[in-house]
Structure formats: structure tokens, C-alpha cells
TrEMBL record:
The organism's taxonomic lineage, starting at the top: Eukaryota, Viridiplantae, Streptophyta, Embryophyta, Tracheophyta
Annotated source species: Corchorus olitorius
Membrane-spanning ranges: 6-23
Keywords, in A-Z order: Membrane, Transmembrane, Transmembrane helix
Full protein name: Disease resistance protein
Length: 52
């Protein structure tokens, strides 16, 4: 196994770990609540803009 293959394997392992943590945090209840709040704020602003 050459150096390039080792570097690719190690890089792939780090990338996989990073993506697992990222997706776990994105699926957390706190993050999902934040997204819902942002959507509600955006919807409210759009409704207020229509009243102008």
C-alpha cells in the first residue's frame, strides 16, 4: 500500500467523523427548533410586508 492510499484512508476517516458529528448536531432538537423559529420569523415578516 502506497503513501497516497494511506493518506486517502486517513483523510476519509477524518472526513467521515466530521460529517457524522455535523449531521448529529443538525438533527438535534435545539437546531431543529432554531430552524422552526427562523421560519416563523420569516413568515411573520412576509405577512407584515403584505399589509403595507
Amino acid at each position: 500500500m502506497g503513501l497516497e492510499a494511506v493518506v486517502l484512508a486517513v483523510g476519509g476517516a477524518f472526513l467521515s467523523s466530521f460529517l457524522n458529528v455535523l449531521f448529529d448536531r443538525m438533527a438535534s432538537p435545539q437546531f431543529l427548533n432554531l430552524l422552526k423559529q427562523q421560519k416563523l420569523k420569516r413568515d411573520l415578516w412576509q405577512s407584515l410586508e403584505m399589509l403595507r
